[in-house]
Design a protein that fits this description.
With 260 residues, the protein is of the alpha/beta class. It has a domain at 36-164 and 245-254: 3-Layer(aba) Sandwich (Collagenase (Catalytic Domain)). The chain has helices at 56-70, 99-108, 150-160, 242-254; strands at residues 2-6, 9-14, 19-25, 29-32, 36-45, 75-85, 114-119, 127-130, 140-144, 205-206, 209-210. The strands form 4 sheets. The protein has a 5-stranded mixed β-sheet, sandwiched between helices. Helix 1 packs across helix 3. The chain is globular and about 55 Å long. Bound molecules: zinc ion. Zinc ion (ZN) is lined by residues 155, 159, 165.
Length: 260
């Protein structure tokens, strides 16, 4: 199903600098409408001191915000269950050493649902997605308990529905967009972004103003979208672009697996 004529206008106002960032305008554009409510199972692990360390309300509040970002493709999320797990050794996972996260997914995964695992420790990152919507029996999203925000959960769901970071390729995408289909995140309405994962953010942004002086292969200065959910800039969150929403919707519609 296609919905035409959606007018969405997200405007990010950077109050600290007085500058207006990119505005997200999907005027007269069509996006697939999935009419889909995905069910989330929220797994919460006990920490080594015996506490779970999160409130169900904080997760529900974050998901409420997530739903606004996915609304343009008629997607929403509902937490159907909170599951509490007592093994504190599962309260710490790492992208680099996937042994524990694999074990967790094997033990607790609920098939055909989106499994969110809330843990106290993930080195270097606020979260990561293991697998995509097409892995109905194994996929899972890990979120650090002190990163339970709309932005973090939306970001990981973006990966879950096949999105890359805006900085994929670390600036190989040209500022003029000439290679936007094959470089970067391969989405043309997200500007080229030179960020490198784990680089200190102050080298790129100051008070949510982009200060990085590097240039692309043509000698042009980058002007990435600091508010994009799939970027790492911790500035105001504007949401997904039209191209990102389209890619997620198309991926799900084309996928072999339909989640509950
Ligand atoms: Zn990411």
């Amino acid at each position: 199903m296609v919905r035409i004529g959606i007018i969405l206008f997200f405007l990010c106002l950077f109050q600290t600098t007085g500058l207006y960032a990119q505005s997200y305008t999907f005027q007269q554009e069509s996006l697939p409408c999935l009419q889909k409510k995905f069910t989330i199972v929220a797994h919460i692990f006990k920490d080594p001191t015996g506490k779970y360390g999160v409130t169900e309300q904080s997760i529900l509040d974050a998901i409420k915000g997530v739903n606004t970002f996915f609304a343009p493709i008629c997607v929403s999320y509902e937490v159907c269950a909170f599951k509490y797990h007592d093994n504190f050794q599962h309260d710490s996972v790492s992208i680099d050493e996937p042994g524990i996260s694999n074990e967790i997914r094997k033990l607790y995964h609920e098939d055909f649902r989106i499994n969110l695992y809330f843990v106290s420790f993930i080195p270097d990152f606020c979260g990561f997605a293991a697998g995509t919507h097409n892995d109905a029996f194994t996929s899972g999203i890990f979120i650090k308990k002190d990163c339970i925000t709309t932005r973090t959960i939306s970001h990981e769901l973006g990966h879950f529905f096949t999105l890359s970071h805006t900085f994929e390729g670390n600036g190989a995408e040209l500022v003029n967009g000439a290679n936007c289909l094959t470089e970067g995140d391969q989405i043309c309405d997200t500007p080229a972004d030179p960020y490198k994962a784990l680089d200190p953010l102050p080298a790129y942004v100051e008070n949510c103003k982009f200060i990085f002086g590097g240039q692309d292969a043509n000698g042009e200065y980058y002007n990435p979208d600091l508010g994009n959910i799939m970027s790492y800039y911790e500035c105001d969150t504007c949401g997904f672009t039209w191209g990102q929403l389209k890619k997620m919707a198309d991926a799900y519609l084309a996928g072999a697996v339909k989640l509950w």
